[in-house]
From TrEMBL:
Keywords: Cell membrane, Membrane, Transmembrane, Transmembrane helix
The protein's name: GlsB/YeaQ/YmgE family stress response membrane protein
Localization in the cell: Cell membrane
Keyword check for Transmembrane helix: yes
InterPro entries according to UniProt: Transgly_assoc
Family statement: Belongs to the UPF0410 family.
Coiled-coil residue windows: none
Lineage: Bacteria, Bacillati, Actinomycetota, Actinomycetes, Kitasatosporales
Length: 88
């Protein structure tokens, strides 16, 4: 992955994190910074997974890659929220 890919993954990761948070039902007890970090990680991991399956570079919008990234972000937000709730 090139530097431009990493920078775009970070920018897209912010959006992915917010979308992942919206997918999870109910109120989350984590801050926006955690949401953004989860989104960045989900964007990077999702891009790697999409690349491994050969769906990262398609003509037009990479819908499958976006869905993978959003799903990973939703799982990450839910897992961190659950961990924070258990600690309380």
């Amino acid at each position: 992955m090139e530097i431009s890919g990493i920078i775009s993954a970070i920018v897209i990761g912010i959006v992915i994190g917010v979308l992942g948070r919206l997918v999870v039902p109910g109120r989350q007890h984590i801050g926006i910074l955690w949401t953004i970090l989860i989104g960045i990680v989900a964007a990077l991991v999702g891009a790697a997974i999409a690349g491994a399956f050969g769906v990262a570079d398609t003509k037009g919008v990479d819908w499958i890659e976006w869905l993978i990234q959003i799903a990973l972000a939703a799982v990450g937000v839910a897992a961190l929220d659950r961990a924070k709730t258990v600690q309380r």
